[in-house]
Specification:
Blueprint: E1 2-3, E2 26-27, H1 30-36, E3 42-48, E4 53-56, E5 61-67, E6 73-83, E7 89-95, E8 98-104, E9 109-114, E10 124-133, E11 146-159, H2 166-169, E12 176-181, H3 187-203, E13 209-214, E14 225-232, E15 253-257, E16 263-267, H4 269-278, E17 291-295, E18 308-309, E19 318-322, E20 324-331, E21 341-352, E22 360-367, E23 370-376, E24 382-389, E25 399-407, E26 420-424, E27 430-435, E28 453-458, H5 464-479, E29 487-491, H6 493-499, E30 503-506, H7 510-516, E31 520-522, E32 525-528, E33 535-538, E34 543-551, E35 554-562, H8 569-587, E36 599-602, E37 608-610, H9 621-647
Amino acid sequence: MTVRSISMAGVLRRSTFASLALALTLGMSGAAWAAHAPVASDAVGRAELPYVLSVQGAGGSSTVAVTLPDSATPIVFDGTVRSTFTYDGTIIVTINGRRIAQVPARTGGPVHAVANADDVDRGLAIIGMYVQLDPHADCFVDNTSTATLANASLTYSHPVTPPTTIGTFLSPGLSKLTVQVGTKAGEAEQQAALDAVAALVHLYPVPTVVKLLVSDTAPKDDFLNRTVVVQATDEEGPVGSASPSSTSTPLGGTLEVRADGALYLTGAPSALAGTAFALADPALSLFEGKRLDHVAGTPDWAPATGKTSLADLGAPTISMSGVGKLQSVIAIDQPAFGQSLSEVQVSLSGVITPLPEGGAGRVDFLWNGTLIDSIGMSSDTALNAQLAISSEQLNRNNQLTIELSYVPPSGQCTPQPLAARLDFDAKQSFVTPTAGDSVPPGFERFPQVLGASVPIALGSAGNPASLLQQAGDLIAGLQSSTTEQLAVNLMSTAQFQSAGVSGLLVGASAVETDTLGAPLTINDLISVGDPAPRFTAALPGPLALAQAFFNDKRDVAILGPIPTDALSVAGKAALQLNEQFANQIAAGPGRWTQLTGQVVSMGATGQLQEIALPAAPDSSTSGRSFLIVGLIATAFLIIGLVVWSRTKPQEPAPELPGSSTTS
């Protein structure tokens, strides 16, 4: 069976412990619904599970935390259990430990159950699912079978009025947060808006979506969708406004919930970024006032450095007990260390029950699904493992799976035998990283290659307002892939090109793409391959194209339209695709982690498609010939993608990579 830990992202911020989660459903009669129906002054919302809840093997269990907004009351839970189990038994769904439904293990089935206020503790509803198969002599019965909870949601009632205090405004469990700046916003306001996006994504876990909006229209907030308005002030009031407003000093700006329900972040231009950083402080959710002055903060940047315990990485003590096969999974992700890593040493300190005479058992250690070590059970109760992970084995996001396999002396599991138990102390188990490169150039080097700051520039392919909103989307997606709060450094394109630092460019034109040394360069023809010779092919577009690459001692990620001519019909369509692409990074399943390889495109169907690049050529004639063949194949792939995008009938996009999260 597989034992999963609860996903506490946003509750215990540093939790990188693997948590595979999904949704469950509940059942109730019409009379029960009437008893729990919201009052007339309330509205109804739905909270989906942030991750897929999945269990494996006999006795497998898993949990996930669903965050509800402040003042929300749960009503009903719905979902469907899908099962591949072949033996009799039951699959049980719980909320905060209370059994709410069970379905046959062989078939699965719908879940529909009443929920109540007691099912929520400090804004969290803990959804659980576990398997109980009927007794069987085979200790490894249905060992690889799985059950998942699909289409799960928790329906709740909530007030209809917008928040009136800072604490209520910044309470968790929201559907969407918008950071708004005016169309005439200066550089300081734009910088602060991007920092506010990063801070709010850092504060709120998936599935809350944070977007940046450039608009002069007054916010129209409701209870579940809220707006943070960023405005610079001078001695008279907001810049460009005749309305008086409070003043602030560079020591910190002001946060104020006004009558329209929006939270206004105001201050001198030099104070705005510090106030934006402070939005990530969970202590603000405790403040029951409308206004705070002189608010300043620094990014919550404290990555693991040197020898770090699993507990400090967010993992609880690992405990497994039973017969057959049991699993526990730990996430060890490079972004948690704030830098790229070349290798990792994992030291585990644990205790295991002694192996009885005639029994058989072992503990296997798998890194990203590959066996790297195995220790047999014996009469010794101490179990210590030293695991060396090389650069070839390291990804950006990694899973260490610990499997305990045990068969009792009888060789059978009926009647129920005495179980084996294994515990690893998270406080006495450590990860020791070594800085360096392991992940090849591409999107998976981000965000860890950037460190604490994200340099970002707006290119020339698109209007400034749209590009700023796209920059907000990229920052939101990037921030969601790390537990560390990122700071944004907004630059001009010229500064970005000359600075020689790793970072992002939004709205890359053909000239900017070529200057930065992207794998695919765009003119009237598209050129593939580096170094020369390059193969060129006509690319009619429209497309949105994201590229991540290493050039001139730095890692760069860019997003740009094809063609870059904003006046043509295809160019206008490409600019719209650029906006859709950026939105997918901010709000789509997997967010930034959807991006793989070095080149990803989006055509008219709105689907993301990785374009594989040929390997670098060797010095031999055969190597150069192989490269040319690869370039031709790649060029045809690109052209075929465009034709497919323009001719394929519109239909709902399939589930994208990363939409089902298992850790």
